[in-house]
Amino acid sequence: MAAELIRGQNHPLTDTRLEIRVSAGQPVLAGVTLNDDQGRMREAAWIAHPASPRLPGIEVSRQAAADHRLAVDLDALPEAVHRANVLLALPSGVGGPASFGSVAAPTIAVTGLDGTEIVRYTVTDLATESAIVAVELYRRGGGWKVRAMGQGYSGGLAAMLEDQGLPQARELATTINEAVASGMARSVATPPPPPLPSPGQGAAVTPPSGQPDQPVAGDAAGHTMEERLYNQVWGMFEDLARTTAAYRSAVDFADSRMERELDQVLSDPATRVGPAADAARVQARAKHSQLVDQARANFERDVAQLVAESEVVEPALPPAFARWDNPVWQAYQVPGQTPMALRLGDLSLPERADLRIPMLVRLPLQRGLWIDSGRRVAASPEAAAVDADGLRRLAAETATAVVARVLAVHPVGAFNVQVIDPAGAAAGALEPLLSTGALREPPAVGHAGVRTVLDRLTQRVDLIQMAVRSGAVDSLPPDLDPAEQLLVVHDFPHGFDDRAITQLRYLADEGPSIGVNLIMVADRDDARAYGPVLDPLWRALLRITPVPDDHLADPWVGHSWTYEPPLAPGNSRVVSQVLEHLAVARQRSAS
Prior knowledge:
Blueprint: E1 3-5, E2 10-13, E3 17-35, E4 47-48, E5 54-55, E6 58-59, E7 65-73, E8 83-89, E9 107-111, E10 117-122, E11 131-140, E12 143-153, H1 156-163, H2 169-185, H3 225-267, H4 275-316, E13 341-348, E14 357-362, E15 369-372, H5 381-384, H6 388-408, E16 415-420, H7 427-435, H8 446-469, E17 484-492, H9 498-510, E18 516-522, H10 535-540, E19 542-544, E20 549-553, E21 560-564, H11 574-590
Parallel strand pairs: 1-10, 15-18, 15-19, 16-17, 17-18
Antiparallel strand pairs: 2-12, 3-4, 3-7, 3-8, 3-9, 5-6, 6-7, 8-11, 9-10, 11-12, 13-14, 13-21, 20-21
Helix pairs in contact: 1-2, 3-4, 6-7, 6-11, 8-9
């Protein structure tokens, strides 16, 4: 049974290869600093952090997440290291909480490589601190111990590093925070916790021990079938993330163990050659194969259950959650109310690329979208087979497919779509929106068109914000369009001057909160002349791609997930058919 520590308590460590598991209710960055016998960091290279996640004997997560698994091999630390400090810090500059006192207390568990907990410590009694040393692993009498610290710093990461004697503390803290902000910009948003069951609503039935689960669509907490399916999809996403993390960790352990055993054979000249050496090599490789085979068997067992669940859940999804090839679209009816979420594509991991998890985002949208049309998208054979012009065309088609989905899952008149296409380059992709009247007015072209649309939308944001802040919402002009606004920008920054770029940044930051949403179709390299001025804009938007690409990360262990865009199958007319249904519904509503 694991020892439950309180602040200041210590516990001996009999294993030197460990995992440090962090559980927090909020994305935090996790790192490890190394100290000498005087408790000082000798150099900036003595810290593992998201921008530099590996040190000899240490590996940490590459981004902020609610859950982390840090790998520690105490025997591999440099001899000068007498202490390894596990640090947690709240990311700065990303709109999250400013102190640990306003979030759930993080818990640290030190475990063996098999997952057996050795000690557990919950860091309580925090207030204004934004960075903490949670636990320290330290040398004592030829061995190692772990101590619960909970030492907090209101001055954040920089104050913590300064306290450990690092001269370049503030510069390094800035580098780390920038790396974390960049990582969070590509992270799939954490879903809200599922609701507690209502009175009389029972929990899901657990099958008797030893019997496999029988998948059932909607077998999750929630007050409606839509909510239960949403929570079930997110549960599948989390289960796949965690079982893959366990598999990768087991394989890494097997690789490391074999390397260590082979190094032992080679380190002694007396045993380097001969029958004994050959036998040791064979034994080391056999152990490696046994461990990897067992890990793979466990992984395949867990994934088989998820595949079976997916086969049941996917056909049961409502249009807002369904792929374009789902038969539910053939019986499509314009909804009377807004759904709780929208499918923006599929997510998969390379270990089982055939298992695709729906990527659901909550409505109303909390951030805009950036559909990247640049050649940096090259992580898959599909991407490599498409030239630059093909990527731009697919990006424009992806934007149209997303707009069609947004319109399709909202009641008639709930959204007004406006398009900026300065050079008219996206006319072909926009044809389904134009021919069905989904666009009330033609795309804005040229510099004058860009300015007109941006002026109108920024004035709308200003007006509504002032009315909300002054409590005078009833005094808004009666001719103000009550529909949410969706602005699609093609070929940025063509047609944009400095003023227009400032307006676009403003809309990306302030628009979602009052119903002005942004979709940008852009190649970041086209705007490189603006340098870091546009970095906040890119970070404010969720980046998706027109071809499969492994750029999104989960909020638990930070896997790089392959994202697949929500394009309709080739030669399918489903998007046009859905937009035609909407056109008929608009005509009926207007008559």
